[in-house]
Amino acid sequence: MKLKIALVILLIALFIFSLSTGHATASFSQGMTALYYGDGPLGTVMRQIRLPRAILAILVGASLGVCGAALQGYLRNPLAEPGLIGVSGSAALGAVISLQTGFATYVWMGLPIAAFSFATLAVLLLLLLAGPRGSSLTLILAGIAVSALAGAFTSLALNLSPNPYATSEIIFWLMGSLADRSFEHVWLALPFCLIGWLMIGSIGKALDALTLGEGVASSLSISLTKTKLLLVFGVASSVGAATAVCGAIGFVGLVVPHLLRPLVKGKPSTLLLVSGLGGAVMVLAADIAVRVILPDRDLKLGVLMAIIGAPLFLHLIYKTRSSLQ
Amino acid sequence: MTLLTLKDLSVRRGACPVVDNVSLEIRSHELVGLVGPNGAGKTTLLKAALGLIEHTGNSSLAKLPLNERSSTAAWMPQEREINWPISVLETVALGQLLPSKNLDKNEIINDALNRTGLINYRDRISTELSGGEQARVLLARALAQNTTLILADEPIAGLDPATQLTTMKLFSDMAKEGKGVLISLHDLNLAATFCTKIIMLDRGRLYAIGDPAQTMTDENLEKVFNIRAYHARTDKGIICQPIEVLSH
Amino acid sequence: MRVYMPRFRRLALYIVLYFLGISVSATANTPRVVSLNVCTDQFVMLIADDNQIVSLSEISTDILSSAMAAEASKYHQNNSGAEEVYLLQPDIVLAGIYTAKATVNMLESLGIRVEKFEPANTVEQIIGNIKRTGQLLGHTERANTLVTKFESSLEELTMGINNRPRAALYYANGYTTGKNTLSGQILDLAGFSNIASEFDIHWGGTLPLELLIIAKPDVIITGTTYPGSSRSEEILKHPALKPLRHVSSTDANWVCGTPHILKAIEDLQTIHPDKMSTQ
């Protein structure tokens, strides 16, 4: 409980910090007043540029955190993460295809729907490959294959685009950024993220039961099929929508549950909400950092996350290497 | 009172029957030992009875709607799996899938912890305990499910003699209190001493069923296990100690 | 690296070209020309005789980049590769200074005269480039007439401007251009003051969306959006830009420093307060 309160306070503080970070020079109180009244150019900046950016950081971070914790709980493996196992990459591919074909323009909610569909395929493929209990080796290998394939097709789709800028945007889709996103993106992502969170929230008990294995979970009246479906669609929905508007941001779902697990004494259901909060905190902080470190360049969030996350990933591989053979 | 009924239960792997037309009943006050050599189909029979794997024939347990299973039978698989570093109290509480609040005041859970001698281990992390201690934690977890029927697959394998004895004693006590317990085990001696009934499986078929004295005869042991055993009767119960492999 | 071509091989090439019916004879006064750059393409079309023009660059017919796309379609197009251009055997090749170095070096080592043009960002440079093209292609008079006509039209367009509304040139990825660039010049000649100067951007640079909103220019002129989709261009449709006055995008007339910038200026002046009444 204390941990949740601490995370919420941190989240609010970072949210406000994020709102006061940007190019336009304005004092904190000026910014907040402009945000409240929405008058003048500063009001536009606060309401139309900074507010959606901060909200998206929370949506994306919470989605990645929750999904990381859920996938790890389901597969009983601390290496499972939407980015590493290729779900984010596949969602990005779906998003790119829908944008380049015009599906995103002509179909209502076409962008998140496409991202969701491709993410679903990736999760299903992964569960098929990894089996009911994901061994680290299968997970990592399947993740490499799915990510590589999705990344290649994303590049291909962008290379084939008639738009000269598209090719240079491969890095955005593979690394992710929140720069200059608007409320249009918030409205596209929000419903899918919420639905995903609800689905995953409903399998908390099942994930707890799975701590003792599938057989025991089943004898505790847990429906394994229902759990699997809710997990697949929940992850695909929230990660898909987040990726569709912000690109693939890796490692959040790996780092956050890993750091918070000891603090919640490991129980998967408790970890879900806490990881959601933690993910939001992490992405908000990272998004502030990219603006403070390199204000004039659009430093990709994924770059920063990889710098933090990859060493931890290596550490986890080192720790679990005995089970890798 | 009958707690579990299996009728013509069969499990096939390809064309080959792993469990072949097994019918039996488990009643309350019974501690039933399921014995048989490796590959006799003990684990498969237990899983089929629970409805965890595809089977033909009937199992009263597998037929139950999903939401009634947790209150009917507790299951202890052979693999002692605790995947996350959670406390002993939380692990045991998984028997009821309770939220983390006020667990230490829960009577069923405290009773399970007391019976397994784990009450002082409550706040320890399960995954940091020894193998024997983890086995006790999982036993407490099964007790905390508070069911009238317990199915356990080799619950005493790999444990030290004292823990084996206390575990068997605990199962025996549960049976005396009116529960039905079905366990598979390889230790014929402990089976003979503690079980009220023995089910002997031979290549998937039910070879013998009855009290230990009736089933663990020289003839049956030779046919099913290909061994000769030393038999004795003590004030603690029957002794059936394998001493020799027969050559064919 | 220079590439040497043995004499006999060159002779063989001439024979091949002869049989292909391509004339390799040079006329001293009106040389046959190949252009490798979309801007030199336009100078060539404005000044050269039809039969002087051997080939133009491939993008000369691209309506998004070339102000003379329609006219260009009646000429041969090359993809600016050394091999192709060499086989065309022009007397002179016009290229931009940013045309691929390897191509230019190769052509020169093969003995082809390559004239490199700097992109014209100012009126003076435009006039200079017109005159230079005239001299190179043997049409000095034609070039001078073109210059006179250009100067008088320009004078007419820039007359009578009293107010200078603040304007921002805004392109994909939040890029803007300043007074030293051609588009900056067009903006200035049309009678607007460029807000890029307020941010000390005199060439090109990124102007963060936030700063653009805060600067609150009277008008925003955006870049052409290409077909297909790109995140880079999404910034031009950002809801935060809605409160600002937004006019049609820059087009092919803005790309090259040629007399076609007159059309760009004229288009821009349709929203200029001092010019709206006269049109």
Account of the protein in words:
- The complex is a heterotrimer of chains A (325), B (248) and C (279).
- With 325 residues, chain A is mostly helical.
- Chain A has 15 helices and no strands.
- Chain A has helices at 2-19, 28-37, 40-75, 87-101, 103-106, 110-130, 136-159, 170-175, 183-201, 204-210, 214-219, 224-246, 252-260, 268-293, 301-319.
- In chain A, helix 3 packs parallel to helix 9 (183-201) and helix 3 crosses helix 13.
- The radius of gyration of chain A is 19 Å and the shape is globular.
- Chain A starts with a helix and ends in a 6-residue tail after the last helix.
- The mean pLDDT of chain A is 91.
- Chain B is of the alpha/beta class.
- Chain B folds into 2 domains: 1-72 and 148-213, Rossmann fold (3-Layer(aba) Sandwich), CATH 3.40.50.300; 81-146.
- Helix content of chain B is 31%, strand content 31%.
- Chain B has 9 helices and 11 strands.
- In chain B, strands 5-6-7-3-8-9 form a 6-stranded mixed beta sheet, sandwiched between helices. Chain B has a 3-stranded antiparallel beta sheet with strand order 2-1-4.
- In chain B, a hairpin with a 2-residue loop joins strand 1 and strand 2.
- In chain B, helix 4 (107-115) runs antiparallel to helix 5.
- The mean pLDDT of chain B is 93.
- Chain C has 279 residues and is an alpha/beta fold.
- Chain C folds into 2 domains: 7-153, Rossmann fold (3-Layer(aba) Sandwich); 166-276, 3-Layer(aba) Sandwich (Rossmann fold).
- Helix content of chain C is 39%, strand content 14%.
- Chain C is built from 12 helices and 11 strands.
- Chain C has helices at residues 7-19, 38-47, 69-72, 82-88, 101-109, 123-137, 140-158, 182-189, 209-215, 231-234, 261-269, 273-276, and strands at 33-35, 53-57, 77-78, 92-96, 113-117, 166-170, 175-177, 193-194, 204-206, 219-222, 246-247.
- Chain C has a 5-stranded parallel beta sheet with strand order 3-2-1-4-5, sandwiched between helices. Chain C has a 4-stranded parallel beta sheet with strand order 8-6-10-11, covered by helices on one side.
- In chain C, helix 2 (38-47) crosses helix 6 (123-137), helix 4 (82-88) runs parallel beside helix 5 and helix 6 runs antiparallel to helix 7.
- The longest helix of chain C has 19 residues, at 140-158.
- Chain C is globular.
- The A-B interface holds A 73, 76, 205, 208-213, 215-216, 218-221, 223, 261-262, 265-268, 270 and B 47, 50-52, 66-71, 73-77, 79, 81-87, 90-91, 94-95, 97, 100, 125, 138, 141, 145.
